[in-house]
Amino acid sequence: MTDENPQAGQRVRRRASRSAGPTGADTDAASTVVPDSKPIEKPVEETVARLTLRKDAPPKVEAAASVPAQVYPTLQEQTPVPVTIVPAPRSSRKLVSGIVLASIAALAFAAVSAMLLVDRNNASNADEERAGYVAGARTTALNLTTLHSDTAAADLDKFLAGTTKEFQSQLDGRKDSFISVLGQVGVQTDGEILEAGFEKSDSGCGTSLVAVKAMQKNKDQPEPEERNYRLRITMCDTDGQLLASNVEFVP
Is residue 35 part of a domain? Predict the structure, then answer.
C-alpha cells in the first residue's frame, strides 16, 4: 500500500514506527519508508522554527521601531522651541540700545541747548554792553555840541561830568578862559544826534561813531547856521559808570 498511495505515507510511517518487531520484508519496507520520511520531517521542523522566530522577532522589531518613531521625532520637533525664543534677547538688546541712544541724544540736546543758552546770554550781554557804549557816546556828543554863552560854565561842567579824570586833565588851567571866550563871542549852539553806531570794543572800553547836526549862531552871525560833525567817542567803564575817555572829530 505504501507504493501505490504516496500521500498516505505519513500514516504508514507512523504505523511502521509504532510496530514492534516486523518480519524481514517489513524491515525492508520500513527502511524504505524512513528515508522518505526524513525530507518530510525537516520541512516541518523548519516551518516550526520559522514560526517560532517570527513570533519572537516581531516584539523586538516593534520595540526597536517604536522607540525612534514615537520618542525621537517628538524630541526633534521640540528642539526648535528655544530657537523661537532667541529673538527675545535681541529685541531686548535693541530696546536697551535704543534707550542708550535716546539718553545720549537727550544729553547731547541738553548740552547743545545749554551752549546755545550760554551763547545767547553772552550775545545778549554783549548787545547790552554795546548799546551802553553807543548811548554814552550819544550823550557825550550832545553835551559837547550844546553850549550857550550865558550858561557856558554850567554847560561845560555838564559835559566834563561825563568824562574821565584823564580827559578832564586836558582842560586844567584852560577852563576859565574857554568860558570867557564863549561869553565874548556870544556862541549859541544846539546839537542834534543824527545817527550813532558801535565801532569796536577793547579792555572794558567801547568806541562809537556819532553823526551830529548843530545849529550855531554868534554875534557876527545872528541867523542859525547848520553844521554837521562826525565824532569818534570812546567810552570806558569806570567804577560801574561809563565815561568818555577820548573825543575825536572825524573828517
Answer: yes
Asked if 131 and 243 sit in the same domain, the reply is yes
List per-residue pLDDT tens for the chain, 251 residues long: 444 444 444 444 444 444 444 444 444 444 444 444 444 444 544 444 454 444 444 555 444 444 444 444 544 445 555 545 545 455 566 666 777 777 787 777 777 777 777 766 666 788 899 999 999 999 999 999 999 999 999 999 999 999 999 999 988 888 899 899 988 999 999 999 999 999 999 888 999 999 999 999 999 889 999 999 999 999 999 998 999 999 999 98
Domain range for 28 is: 6-67
Bridge partner list, 40: none
Pair 129, 241 in one domain? yes
Report if residue 13 sits inside a domain. yes
Sheet architecture: strand order including 205-217: 147-148, 188-202, 205-217, 225-238, 241-249
129 and 51 co-located in one domain: no
* Domain count for the chain: 2
Distance CA 38, CA 31 (A): 11
Decide: 250 and 169 in contact? Cβ < 8 Å: no
pTM score of the predicted model: 0.54
